[in-house]
Amino acid sequence: MSLVDPPVPSLPVPVAVGEHCTRSLRLSREQIAQFADLTGDTNALHHDAEAARRARHGEIIAAGQHTTSMMIGLASTHFSRPGEGFARELLCLNFNFAFKQPVFAEQELRLHWQVATVEWHPRLEGWLLHVDGHAVVADADARPSVVGRGMLLVKAVPVA
């Protein structure tokens, strides 16, 4: 794959290496329980404060898929936003995550993605991005709770 000869040279490369996006949020106990219910996660650590107090972490924790879905949503929103004179089409092709420490209810969580590489893919007729990300609890020791890597396909499309 090479960075030359995109099919519509009049459109710019829609993403740059080093580009990043961030978002801060707080997950309430109610949001954690609702998300777990919606995804069929019956683990008491997401629903039952008493069970959570008896467990290793001692408090309600967010399900891993809750934090990662918020991270994927951030990437999807950012990399599909309109450009100047063109629209972006986005497909999330792959994400991998590692869980490093729990996310507790009511903590400020900072989500972050940064573009590591951008490559033209002629067969897919778009730009493949590798992005590196993390979710960090704001008032903790700044070690990530979740780290991730994703591959996205972004296409620049002329605006009619």
Number of helices: 3
Task: Summarize the helix and strand pattern as letters.
Answer: EHHHEEEE
Say which CATH homologous superfamily of one domain is assigned: Hotdog Thioesterase
- Care to count the β-strands? 5
Helix fraction, binned, reads 10-25%
The profile of the biggest β sheet is: 5 strands, antiparallel
- In spatial order, strands of the major sheet run 1-3-4-5-2
On the 0 to 100 scale, the average pLDDT is 91
Protein name: MaoC family dehydratase
InterPro entries: HotDog_dom_sf (IPR029069), MaoC-like_dom (IPR002539), UPF0336/Enoyl-CoA_hydratase (IPR050965)
Organism: Pseudaquabacterium rugosum
Structure description:
- The chain is α+β, with helices and mostly antiparallel strands.
- A hairpin with a 4-residue loop joins strand 3 and strand 4 (126-137).
- Strands 1-3-4-5-2 form a 5-stranded antiparallel β-sheet, covered by helices on one side.
- It is elongated.
- The protein has helices spanning 29-38, 49-54, 64-79, and strands at 20-26, 86-99, 108-121, 126-137, 144-158.
- The chain has a domain at 20-27 and 63-158: Thiol Ester Dehydrase, Chain A (Roll), CATH 3.10.129.
